[in-house]
Amino acid sequence: GTKLITCVFQLYVQPWLAELVGSALFIFTGCMSVIENGQDTGSLQPALAHGLALGIVIALLGEISGGHFNPAVSVSVCLVGGLNIILLIPYIAAQLCGGLIGASLAKVISPPQNYFNTSGGAFNTVKDRAQLWPAIIAEVVMTLFLTLSVCMGAVNSKTRTFLAPFCIGLTVTADVLAGGAISGACMNPARAFGPAAVAHYWTYHWIYWVGPMIGALLTGTLIRLMLGDERIRLLLK
């Protein structure tokens, strides 16, 4: 009886908690870096804060849950056989709940004027329809880069590296520096959902689900068909 409870706890409860806590800490840091961003730093402050925070929570919690903290990452890892499909919905739920917790904490400690000016760290870069397609394409490409970094650095046996947390964090930093001005460089529906819900800012929110999920599907397809090791490619047969 005790062994079964321990087994269930380690296989299902611990990973869920790790995703919840990691997502909350990462998204809190991300929101605060935007809310408190000075005019002179541009994308640099959010880029560094998101990349560093993500790298750290992956290094700390990755051995428990895989260190996803992002529904798009969970989808891509699931597609390449690195996550049991039973855990996919619980992982995404944990990440979204973590997003709500992180964004709520950011609201509690932020000066109201800064919070209001930045929509609470929600993604408010896209203001009209002319920006729509560039933003969607940017999210697809940047999420493809991020999920490729995760799947190749942490899941694919031939390319797996102990530097994976570092690589994944740096990919986020590079993406924010590259595409921050086009779409806000979200790449993470949980990072978009938390502050959108807390600040009630839903304008063009769907972009940050559609773009990242397409990117995740492209990565999964690319690795399953071409870049993956033999075990991953055999999953198709």
Describe this structure in words.
This protein is an all-alpha fold and 237 residues long. The chain is 73% helix and 0% strand. The chain is built from 10 helices and no strands. The chain is globular. The model has no long low-confidence stretch (mean pLDDT 93).
Question: How is this fold's topology laid out?
Answer:
Elements: H1 2-35, H2 44-65, H3 71-79, H4 88-109, H5 112-117, H6 132-155, H7 164-183, H8 189-199, H9 207-227, H10 230-234
Task: List descriptors.
237 residues; mainly alpha; 10 helices; membrane; transmembrane helix; Aquaporin_8
Major beta-sheet overview? none
Round the Cα radius of gyration to an integer and report it: 17 Å
Query: What sort of overall outline do the alpha carbons produce when their principal axes are compared?
Result: globular
SSE succession: HHHHHHHHHH
Mean pLDDT: 93
Determine the strand fraction and express it as a percent band.
under 5%
Structural class by SSE content = mainly alpha
Indicate the low-confidence ranges by residue numbers.
none
- Tally of strands: 0
Helix content: over 70%
- Separation of termini? 38 Å
If helices are DSSP runs of H or I spanning 4 or more residues, what is the number of helices?
10
